[in-house]
Amino acid sequence: MKSDRLLSILLLLQTHGQVSAGELASRLEVSVRTIYRDVEALSAAGVPVYAERGRNGGIALLPGYRTDVTGLTADEARALFVLVTEQAHADLGLGPAIGSALRKVMAALPAPFRGDADLASRRVMIDPVRWRSSPRPSTVDLGVLQAAVFNDRRLRLRYRHGRDAQVRSYTLDPYGLVSKAGAWYLVADHRGQPMMFRSDRMLSASLVDEPVSRRDGVELADVWEVLRQRVDRIPAPVRVIVRVQRSVLARFLRYHEADLVGPASALTEAEAEAEAEAGSEGEPVELELRFPALRAAEQLLVFGPAVEVMEPAELRESLVRRAQETIALYAEGRGV
Questions:
Q1: Is 215 in contact with 189 (CB distance < 8 Å)?
Q2: Helix runs in 213-285, H state only
Q3: Are 202 and 159 a contacting pair, CB within 8 Å?
């Protein structure tokens, strides 16, 4: 709608200062001619907007002009108040700030939208942390990481890697912080190469009195996408066939969804939940999984007899050894 586009132009100019007509047209997916017509409409409505021609020209607002958020639609107002848990803000020391900011936004909303926005904040909640999978508390103050990110300073980090438990030291050029599934990650370049570091594996962090050196034109979202795809594409050459009892299928799918080769066609997770609640003891479901190594597949033992590995034979033998070692441990503990 034109009214939404006019508000978008206004907010973009407030945020970025002078913006070229071509960039506005690209962002809003309209023609440059349409942008100039919209600028004329804003000017006619009393908004102090002007256009400068030429190579270095663009569209801008007169200095000092600000507007409020009364142009928000009802859906946009509701969207602002559907937030993730406050833990992410608290981790960054912004717990009080988010509450204060939302109160100010609420006061600026058009009166007809305030009820819906308040209801959305009380009726919808997003918690990104999976059950029983909260990360260990970080030993490093996130404030140090924030200072490096916001002040464009290099960071010296001592870090314990998960893959081999080795402690290494790095001098990093940070791009930013990412919260994923309840864990904080620092995204940075090390000698020009992108890396990510979990906050709960950091041993120490300190600012370096040197300006950050980032790759030109590269933003946090770009680096994170590269790193995310790198993790998603880790080779998993070990093929495993399992038979899963329906009573644990829902839990199995939650833990091993990422390891499945294709979807669990026999049952969706919701159907598995229903069968588990009903105490169904039907035929086991056969699934194919992939793991990066045989050792990684040994975690299937936690399901006990409810999950049987059919192949490969090497994994079955490995699980037998693990089970025997466990039996021997507890037998010795009882003096048997």
A1: yes
A2: 220-232, 249-256, 269-277
A3: yes
CB atoms within 10 A of CB 147: 16
pTM above threshold 0.85: no
For residue 155, the cross-strand partners are: 172, 207
Q: Which residues pair with 190 in a beta bridge?
A: 193
C-alpha torsion angle, residues 167, 171, 173, 175 (rounded to 10): 20
Q: Token pair 């309209």 is at which residue?
A: 30
Q: What is the DSSP string of 265-277?
A: TT--HHHHHHHHH
Distances (CA, A) of 124 to 80, 98, 105, 117, 319: 11, 17, 18, 11, 44
Kindly report the backbone phi and psi dihedral angles of residue 90, in degrees, each rounded to the nearest multiple of 5, phi listed first: -65, -40
Q: Which residue intervals of the chain are DSSP H helices?
A: 2-16, 21-28, 32-44, 74-80, 87-91, 95-108, 111-123, 142-150, 220-232, 249-256, 269-277, 294-297, 313-333
Tell me the C-alpha distance between 3 and 18, whole Å: 21
pLDDT in tens, 308-332: 999 999 999 999 999 999 999 888 7
**In this structure, what token pair is assigned to residue 20?**
């070229």
Residues 6+ apart with CB under 8 A from 326: none
Residue 307's DSSP bridge partners are 244
Of the pLDDT bands very low, low, confident and very high (cuts 50, 70, 90), residue 94 is confident
- Please name the helix (run of DSSP H) or strand (run of DSSP E) that holds residue 198, with its range, or none: strand 193-198
Q: 69 with 105: CB under 8 angstroms? A: yes
Q: Calculate the alpha carbon distances from 61 to 121, 138, 283, 301 in Å.
A: 33, 44, 69, 65
- Give the residue from 45, 15, 21, 23 showing the smallest Cα distance to 33: 21
